[in-house]
Amino acid sequence: MPSRLGGSEILITEAELRAKIRALMDSGILPRDLPPMKRTGPGEGIPGVQMLIGEQPEQLCTVCEERGPQIAYIYGGELFIVRLHTDCDELWQQERGVRARRSTSDQP
Ligand SMILES: [Zn+2]
Question: Is the entire prediction scored with pTM above 0.90?
């Protein structure tokens, strides 16, 4: 299944996206460090990050402000929600310096 939105080209360059990501991190809108990704269950005190996968056509990407982000991070007890396209998420991970580390939470 293609991940691109039909017909809409992304005109912003990668360099511009990276600059924007850094600005968003400076202003605290994007966290530099997410809380640890972990499964939470009843009785666990501190919720970790929930990662939701799936296109959200009504929402805007936090980074590029285009519609239809495919990833949402929810943390801080749902006080903070960051929505990203997969490409924007990848750039954000690179800017945070964690790109090489893949989350293992979805591994069998
Ligand atoms: Zn985006």
Answer: no
